[in-house]
Each structure stands twice: as structure tokens, then as C-alpha cells.
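C-alpha cells for chain A. Residues wanted.
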């Protein structure tokens, strides 16, 4: 497995490590217990998550509801009969919220890592996008405005895929306008 984590860049005449810059602005993430219990819990939650998304799980849930409905006349549709299904579904829902969130977090992290690898590997791509998920909302809005500007510049030039970064696009745009003003 290849990781592009510690890239080095020249900025304002000094050498800057991306890893050093990251640690200046971000606290290291707390690591969950990676001991025996942590691994067992992770394995169980992964297995339950995989199983709960299967056809067998849906079939079991449908069968439970069907059995519960069929027992209604036997228990005269009592409060206790209703309480059984309400309690069961509440407990399952409560536990599933955590399993779904865990799966979503893991999936999101994997996608972020893959995108970071692509951005780091593509020559000309803006490295500002590496670790972009850790920016606050205002920083994300500002970055979004930059890329809206990039898209507008590309549309006005008629070549949507020509520029690779905002800095490159701004420099090209400035040079084009300078040439156009001299010739026009």
C-alpha cells in the first residue's frame, strides 16, 4: 500500500513539509482502543452491519412483524402486545443508529483518503484540497467561491478542462487579458 503523506513543498523560499503544516493546524485524532476488546467490537459491528444489510435480515424482520401481527387476535390487541413490537423496534433502531454511523464514518474516511491520494498524485492539482474535510464551514465556502471563479473563467475561455488549479487559472487569465488589451 502506497501513501503520499509527507510531501515537501517550497513556499516563500523555505522548505515546508505537508506533515509539519498539518500538525500546526490540526490536533492529532484520538485513537480508539486498538486492544483486544476494540478489535472484537470492531469485528462484531462490521459483521452485524454486513448482515443487517442483507436479504436475510430483511426477511427475518418481515417474518417477526408478520408473526406479531398474527398474534394480535390471540392477545386481543392488548397494550402489552403493542408494547412488545414498540420496545423491540426501539431497541433495534437505537443500536442501528450507531452501526450506520460507524459504517458511514469508515466509508467517508476511505473516500477522503482516496481523494487525497489522487490530489497528491496528480501533477498540477491544487494541494490545498488535501485534507479539505477538516476545514471549517467558512473556509469551505471561500474555497467553493474560488472554484466557482475557476469555472466561470474556464467557461469564458471556452475550454472547461484546460486549467488544473485556481492559481494556474488566475495566472493564465491575467496573461490572456493582458494580451487582449494590447491587441484590442
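Reply:
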Amino acid at each position: 500500500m502506497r501513501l503520499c503523506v509527507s510531501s515537501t513543498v517550497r513556499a516563500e523560499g523555505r522548505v515546508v513539509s505537508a506533515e509539519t503544516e498539518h500538525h500546526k493546524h490540526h490536533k492529532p485524532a484520538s485513537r480508539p482502543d486498538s486492544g483486544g476488546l476494540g478489535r472484537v467490537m470492531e469485528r462484531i459491528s462490521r459483521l452485524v452491519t454486513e448482515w443487517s444489510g442483507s436479504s436475510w435480515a430483511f426477511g427475518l424482520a418481515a417474518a417477526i412483524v408478520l408473526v406479531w401481527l398474527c398474534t394480535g387476535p390471540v392477545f386481543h390487541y392488548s397494550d402489552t402486545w403493542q408494547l412488545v413490537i414498540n420496545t423491540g423496534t426501539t431497541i433495534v433502531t437505537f443500536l442501528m443508529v450507531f452501526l450506520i454511523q460507524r459504517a458511514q464514518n469508515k466509508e467517508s474516511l476511505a473516500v477522503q483518503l482516496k481523494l487525497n491520494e489522487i490530489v497528491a498524485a496528480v501533477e498540477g492539482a491544487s494541494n490545498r484540497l488535501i485534507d479539505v474535510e477538516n476545514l471549517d464551514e467558512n473556509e469551505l465556502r471561500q474555497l467553493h467561491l474560488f472554484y466557482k471563479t475557476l469555472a466561470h473563467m474556464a467557461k469564458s475561455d471556452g475550454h472547461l478542462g484546460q486549467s488544473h488549479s485556481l492559481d494556474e487559472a488566475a495566472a493564465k487569465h491575467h496573461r490572456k487579458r493582458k494580451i487582449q488589451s494590447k491587441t484590442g
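Helices lie at 18-25, 36-52, 55-70, 79-121, 137-157, 166-183. Residues 1-28 have pLDDT under 50 and may be disordered.
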